Amino acid sequence: MSLLTIVQNVCRRQNLDVPTTVIGSSDEQVLQIRALLEEEGNDLAARALWQVLQKEATLTTTATQSQGTMDTLCPDGFRFIINNTIWSRTRRLPVSGPMDAKEWQELKAMFVNGPYYRHRIRGNELLVNPVPPAGEDWAFEYVSDNWIVDSAGTTFKQYFTADDDEPLLEQTLLIAGLRWRWKKEKGLDYAEDFRTYENQVQDAIGRDGGKKILQMDGVTRGMRPGIWVAPGNWFNP
């Protein structure tokens, strides 16, 4: 569903004149609905770790403290790094952090040189201590703030620039959010619309991306050092 389709849908439901275009329109009603939709999209994008906004970044280290700006490392729109996902694939070791200002300055004062890397984001740069050698392969996952994609599916953005731009977030949520925001701006009763919307958002967050099975027996499961034998492949005399 494109920007134009969403706006037309909402206009029909609110008994408003249905526009034939949104981008470039001079109609104040259309301009307001577009602004409210962008407000809703940005707020909704920040409410959860939506799987559709999670991306992977890879980099080749340089022999410097700064590995570059986050905008350069994450060209599809950077919101934040998902904790505990930075790894040196060359050394097969995690890059711990993020460190706060106190921890970072303490680390710098102590001249700690390893063996494990630590990182801090400051001034929108990815800083690493100790300085890694050039040429290591690193990777991490991050959350993008670009919740819109163009019709070709190649350019991601945070604000609409064309009628055929499409949101990546669940469109029923965007429409529900847009409806209560529009009523609020008009001074109409929006309490029930807002309550329904909040329930829909919580349901969507709960099912987004699937969820891990909770283990109630206290046993920690996961990858451990050892020899792994596939079921059915052991010798039974």
Structure description:
The structure is a single chain. Strands 1, 3, 4, 5 and 8 form a 5-stranded antiparallel beta sheet that branches. Strands 2-7-6 form a 3-stranded antiparallel beta sheet. The protein has a 3-stranded antiparallel beta sheet with strand order 10-9-11, with no helix packed on it. α2 packs across α5 (171-185) and α5 (171-185) packs antiparallel against α6. It starts with a helix and ends in a 30-residue tail after the last helix. It has helices at 3-13, 28-45, 70-73, 101-110, 171-185, 191-207; strands at 54-60, 66-69, 80-81, 87-88, 93-94, 118-122, 125-129, 137-143, 148-149, 156-157, 166-167. The protein has 6 helices and 11 strands. The mean pLDDT is 90. With 237 residues, the protein is an alpha+beta fold.
List keywords for this structure.
11 strands; alpha+beta; three-stranded antiparallel sheet; 237 residues
Quick one: how many beta strands? Answer: 11
Shape: elongated
Class inferred from helices and paired strands? alpha+beta
Number of helices: 6
Helix coverage percent: 25-40%
First-to-last CA distance = 62 Å
> Which value, in Å, is the CA radius of gyration?
24 Å
Order of helices and strands: HHEEHEEEHEEEEEEHH
> How much strand content do the residues show?
15-25%
How do the helices and strands line up, and which of them pair or pack?
Elements: H1 3-13, H2 28-45, E1 54-60, E2 66-69, H3 70-73, E3 80-81, E4 87-88, E5 93-94, H4 101-110, E6 118-122, E7 125-129, E8 137-143, E9 148-149, E10 156-157, E11 166-167, H5 171-185, H6 191-207
Antiparallel strand pairs: 1-8, 2-7, 3-8, 4-5, 4-8, 6-7, 9-10, 9-11
Helix pairs in contact: 2-5, 5-6
